[in-house]
Amino acid sequence: MGAFKLGKMTFGSLFKKPETVLYPVVTKPQPAGLKGHIAIDVDDCILCGMCDRSCSTDCIRVDKQARTWTIDRLQCVQCGYCITVCPKKCLSMDPNYAPASTVHEADVFAVPEQAKPEKKAETKTPEPAPAVEKAAESPVEQHADEQLVALIGLMDEEKAAKVRSALSM
User: Fold this and answer.
1) Which of 76, 77, 78, 109 makes a 20 to 30 Å CA pair with 34?
2) Residue 36 carries which DSSP code?
3) Strand (E) or helix (H) holding 49
């Protein structure tokens, strides 16, 4: 009975394409859902630390002071939870396996400083609020008044007028 199964398998394989490929020259496509290793897009990372706090194996370290994101690939179990909690979606699961290494060291990625969005230039220049004269103000009170005038200058005209009328009482 075993000989018939072996004969059937051998005879059937004569008319099929071979399962193997010439590996260095031809590679098979990666199957869907293959978990290779965690990849990061450092340009989008804001160093929030959500991946660090959610990692069950503590393989991810986020250092805000040094602006680095570190992963120990030998501790990572490729569960993918860090990818789901990332608010900027800068983490992804790369289907290719991480390259082999002879030493145990963590991969460190330097996160560049984020460019701050520029404020839109105002077309109107707001008129400064009338100075309120007070007798013998301390330097702290003068600084607070200057800040208040600056904040009123940033408001739109209607709100600034209401604030000025409320302050004049």
Assistant:
1) 109
2) -
3) none
Q: Are 111 and 91 in contact (CB under 8 A)?
A: no
Give the sheet arrangement for strand 107-110, strand by strand.
60-63, 68-71, 107-110
Please state, in angstroms and rounded to a whole number, the distance separating the CA atoms of residues 48 and 40: 14
Q: What are the tens digits of pLDDT across the range 122-165?
A: 555 556 555 545 444 555 555 566 777 777 777 778 877 887 78
Distance CA 80, CA 130 (A): 59
How confident is the model at residue 14, as a pLDDT? 82
Please tell me the CATH code under which domain 30-125 is placed: 3.30.70.3270
Strand pairing of 68-71 and 107-110?
Answer: antiparallel
Each residue of 72-94: pLDDT tens digit?
999 999 999 999 999 999 999 98
DSSP string, 119-131: PPPPSSPPPPPPP
Reduce the DSSP state of residue 6 to 3 states and report it.
helix
Looking at per-residue confidence, does 49 or 1 come out higher?
49
CB 110 within 8 A of CB 68: yes
